[in-house]
Amino acid sequence: KTKVRREKDNKLVAYHEAGHAVSSYYCENTDPVKHITIIPAGSAGGVTLSVPTEDKLGRSRNEMLDDIVMTLGGRVAEAIVLDDISTGASSDIQHATRVARNMVTRYGMSDILGPILYGNEHSSSEVFLGRDFSSGQNYSVKTAAQIDDEIRAIISAAYDKCKSILEEHIDKLHLVAGYLLKTEFM
Prior knowledge:
The protein has 186 residues and is mainly α.
């Protein structure tokens, strides 16, 4: 309630959140956006909330790819409209990378690497939860490079798709961001 943002920062957050919403709307395999706000919540400058319309047992490759597109929507919108990017997309980048990495290393969704589990079921970040250092990578340096290449390709393709969507529907991006600047939520 006491956090006051500059108009420039409000504009950045409005376009960032509008980028998530508009890109999600034009992806076939994302859940519908239910709520958008530019009111800060914790460390987030704003929030775009998508809610599933039905219970799902798992997620398809196309759903995960569109999730990455939607997740990158804020960063892409900043780049297109403001001709700059901010640190506001750091958690989005982290999420998109985690989804892409899981697609390649856990779910066998890479045509190049195939349906193989790379690494183990526990991430190396769980060292502090009782895991040991020996439970890490169980593949070669060459395979690690291929994994990195696959992740980069997935993220790059999603970024390009998102950019295409937002450039094609720039009028909707401006409309949603403008509304958010006036009302702070939608």
